[in-house]
Amino acid sequence: MKRFGLYLLMAILLAACADEVPGPNRPPVARAGQDLDTVIGARVQLDAGSSYDPDGDPLGFVWQLVAVPAGGDWVLTDAQQAKVVLSPDKTGVWLLRLTVTDLAGARATDVAAVSVFGCLADEDCGDGFLCTDDRCVAGVCASTVNQGLCPDDGLFCNGQELCRPGDLDADAVTGCLAGGNPCPPSDCAECDEPSASCRPTPGLACDDGDVCTQGDLCSEDGNCTPGPDRKDSDGDSHSDSLCGGDDCDDSDADVHPGVTEGPVCDLAASCFDQLDNDCDGATDGADGDCQSAGFICVQGPESVTVGSQAALTVRLDAAGYDPANIVCYTDDTRLRLPTRLFGNDFDSNLAGFDLSGDVFRDWQAQSSLSSGSEGAVLWGAQASMESQTIDTTGYTRIGLRYSANATLFEGLFDPLEFLITEYSYDGGVQWFVLDMVGDGILEEWQWYTHILPESCANVSELKIRFRTLAADSNEDAAAIDDVSVLAYPEPTVSRTLYRNHFEVSEGNSQADICVGKTVLLFDDFSSYSKTCLVGEAQNPVSAGSQGLRLAGSDTVARANDLDTRYVPTSSQLLASFVFLSANLPPPPDEAYAHVLYRAQDQNWHRMAGVGLDTMVDSTQDPLVRFLLDPDALGQGDVDVTVWIPGAADDVEDQHQVFFDDFELSWTRASHDEIGDFSDVGEGSYVATLQSDLAGPAQVTCIYYGVDPPLITDGSNHNSGPAPVEVVP
Question: Cα–Cα distance between 43 and 37 in angstroms, integer?
Answer without folding.
Answer: 11
